[in-house]
Amino acid sequence: MSTHPLIPAHCWLLLALSPALALAPATRVLKLTADQASPTFDYTLLAEASQHLMTPIGSIAAANLGPYIIAGFKALNCPGNIAILPLFRNAEGAHILRLLAQGEVVHGVIFKGLIYPQFPQFSYTVSQLEQKFKTVLGFDDKVLQPLAFAETGNCQLATNLALALPK
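The structure assignment produced for this chain is given below.
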C-alpha cells in the first residue's frame, strides 16, 4: 500500500519561498525609485566628538566614484594618527582603507560604541532594519554610520573615539 502526500514537495518549496519571491521585486523597485543621491557623512559630528583627543589634518577622496572620503586626524597628547572612512552599506570602503594604509597600522571598524576587527554586517543589518521601522512609525532618528579606521601609534584614538561618538 503506497502513500502519496497531499501536497508534493515542490509545492511546499514554492510555498516556503513565496514571501521572498514577492518581496525581492518590490525591494528592487523601491531601490530604483529611491533618491539616487550619493550618501554623505557629517564630519562635524566626528570633529566635535574628537575635539579633546585629536585635530583634523585633512581629507582625501579614496576613489574616483562613490562616497569614499578619508579624513585624517592627529592625536593631541601623543604621537599617533588615525584615518577614518565612513562605510555606507558594506565593508567595501574598509578594503580601500586597508589598501591605502599599510605597515604598522591597526585596522578596524567603529560601530555603536564598539570596535570590530571586521565590518559588523549582522549588527549593521539589524540596525538598518530598526532604522527603517522607526522611519515607518514616524520617529526621526540619526542614522549611525560604521567607520573604518586605520591607526598608527599607541594613542588608542579609535577606542576613545568609539566612546565619544553617539551610540
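Interim note for the steering committee: Helices lie at 9-33, 43-49, 92-100, 121-137, 157-164. The first helix runs from residue 9 to 33.
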